[in-house]
Amino acid sequence: MVNFTHSISTKQFLMSGNKIQPPEYFIWETHGIHAGTGNDHVKHGVDELEKITEQAIAKGHPNISFIIHTPRLTRFRYAAEKRLDVKFIRGDNAYFNYPKKIEKLKEKYGNEISIKYGIELEWLGADLGLQWNRSKIFQAQNADFVIGSLHFSKEGIPYDGSQEEADQLIKLRGGVENYWLGYIEELIEMVDCSWEMIQIVGHLDLPKLFAPIPQALLELDTSDHILARRMRFLLEMISEYNLALDVNLAGINKGCGIYPHQSILQRAKQLDIPISLGTDTHSIQNLGNHFERGIKFAYEVGYKHYLSFSKTIPEKRPLRNSGFKEEKYKVMNLGIEMLNLRFEDRKQRRIPKFSFGGEFRTFLEHHKNATSLGDFEAIRIRKGNKSVTISNSVPENSSSKTSGLLSHHRDDPGVLSMIFNALASEEINVETAYLNTNNDGTATAFLTLSGDENAIKEAVEFVRGTGGDSFIEIRVGDNFDIPELQKGKNYLLEVDGVNLPIAISKQMILSIHNNSSGVLLILLSALASQNINIKDLKLGQRGNKGYAILGIEESSNSVSEVLKKLGPQFFETTHLQLGSEGV
Ligand SMILES: [Zn+2]
Ligand SMILES: [Zn+2]
To answer: Domain ACT: where (predicted)?
Structure first.
């Protein structure tokens, strides 16, 4: 049992000056608030997006998470909808315009609060329902997460509609046990068919809203009852597919308790299934209610973390704020984001493995299989054959003097590629690079090179002769100080174990390519052709692989297009568009 040392209440806002401090136990919600949508959509949630957002800001919440149901097939309707003859549950207009509404909301309030938006994907069966859902998911652009939820039985009767509807279905199925068994089987089918489309499974034991939860599910660890066996199988499946469980607080107000029941969550914990948290509220009055109860509930089962999602990528967050090292979590989530962007969609949700060093070692106790990096102040994150190591402290610079090429030039797209072009034409390889942007419209580059000394001189002469007024100074020498790294909030240290120290910025490109002279020039020329300016650059190599990491201008569009066209010499090119708080 865990005792909380602080009394916790979301009502206790700490005031400092005029600024509202966020409540101590605040949830970055996933299954958050269902807002009003519009009259062509299923009637669900009533409040305006703007009003809700303003209230969340007033309460000092760092985050607000909106959620919208996917439109349903007409066969799946609540009794109330049938009575009122609500036919517009197809709701295409409201549904498809939702992302635009959220975009506008972000423009208006994005500086004051982090706004997230997700979809509650309605399971409507494996036949037409599945095709329907695939089309809906395809059109739901830019969602931060998708929750797979089962509200309707195969028979078209809802589990969460009314007591009458539940009773009707229980009768139809011949008893409460079969009622539950049908539900669990449908959920198994849902996960099996939809796991690639969703990140989270919603309110796992929803039927307890109108029917008693069977003893077999309360004794999930020991029972040999068919219900226990199928529920255990379902949880194993959720674990295998790396989905998270929705710890959903809506059941508190409805009198059936948090979804899922403690016995189910305990089993989930044994299987290392991550959780997300949410109030699943439909009105502004309940905004943020029961946060502390939800956190306590998960903590008592043994969870130390929960997930929130950003563009379907999971972010780890601590359940307890006391001793919470916010900056350190930002470093970790930034690393997760960088690594995940290197994978295709469906592998992104898989939580990677960690190593922690220096002050980050306090994370070790919460991560079962994490290893220590000793005093090395960094977090190493790996998945399959890919890894990144990042830190919030500036990597050490060797202070020794070295030979190389120094260029002071105008900070324009294409200037850097002129240097690389001249060097490649003389078959000179660039080994390391340091770039610096000065605030007078110029930049400096220092490159260490391998190749014939005379050839290097030839190349430099060529740049001098053809570079026009782009170059203020360019020369080779053997007594240069190695320049300092550009400064940033956080630093990348290694990629796949290759040393690539660079300040992390919002837009970067990672390239892993055939390590021969001229290959990097392809990338630089491609970027120059699109007027994309390079602000920072680091190079590394191992075996036949060359590594390059580039910081590029924030306004750079068309990067992803360019990267697709580089050709077979490039093994991996990733556009790292980073949205984490740690950038
Ligand atoms: Zn739901
Ligand atoms: Zn919901």
So the answer is: 404-479, 508-583
313 and 343 both lie in a single domain: no
Q: Residue 222 class from Cβ within 10 Å (0-12 exposed, 13-18 middle, 19+ buried)?
A: exposed
Question: pLDDT per residue over 380-401, tens digit each?
Answer: 999 988 999 999 988 876 667 7
Residue in 467, 433, 463, 466 with CA at minimum distance from that of residue 450:
433
DSSP symbols for 342-405: TS-HHHHTS--EEEE-GGGGGGGGG-TT-EE-TT---EEEEETTEEEEEESSPPP----EEEEE
Domain identity same for 413 and 265: no
Range of the domain at 334: 326-391
Residues 156 and 78 in one domain: yes
Distance CA 461, CA 459 (A): 5
* 300 shares a domain with 200: yes
Q: Is residue 333 part of a domain?
A: yes
Distance (Å) from CA 203 to ligand 1 centroid: 7
Do 346 and 263 belong to one domain?
no
Last residue of a domain, one of 369, 391, 413: 391
Of the candidates 210, 225, 289, the one whose C-alpha atom is nearest the C-alpha of residue 263 is 225
Comparing CA positions, the residue from 522, 554, 520 lying closest to residue 537 is 520
Which residues have beta carbons under 5 A from ligand 1 (an ion)? 149
Q: Provide the 8-state DSSP code for 483.
A: P
Q: Which helix (H) or strand (E) holds 475?
A: strand 471-481
Q: Which ligand is nearest to the CA of 160?
A: 1
Tell the residue number behind the tokens 């610079």, with chain if given: 397
Residue 305 forms beta bridges with which residues? 318
Stated pTM of the model: 0.74
Whether residue 90 lies inside any domain: the answer is: yes
Please give all residues whose CB falls under 5 A of ion ligand 2, grouped by chain where several chains appear: 120, 280
Summarised one tens digit per residue, pLDDT across range 498-535 is 999 999 999 999 999 998 878 999 999 999 888 898 99
CA of 149 from ligand 1 middle (Å) equals 6
**CATH classification of the domain holding 448:** 3.30.70.260
Task: Express each pLDDT in 37-49 by its tens digit.
Answer: 665 555 556 678 8
Q: How far is the CA of 51 from the centre of ligand 2 (A)?
A: 19
State the distance from the centre of ligand 2 to the C-alpha of 120, rounded, in angstroms. Answer: 6
At residue 185, what are phi and psi to the nearest 5 degrees? -65, -40
State whether 84 and 161 are in the same domain: yes
CATH number where 193 lies? 3.20.20.140
Residues 351, 474: one domain?
Answer: no
Number of structural domains (the chain) is: 3
pLDDT tens-place string over residues 139-198: 666 799 999 999 999 999 999 999 999 999 999 999 999 999 999 999 999 999 999 899
391, 418, 437: which is the final residue of a domain? 391
- 121 and 256 in a single domain? The answer is yes
Ligand 1 geometric centre to CA of 219 (Å): 25
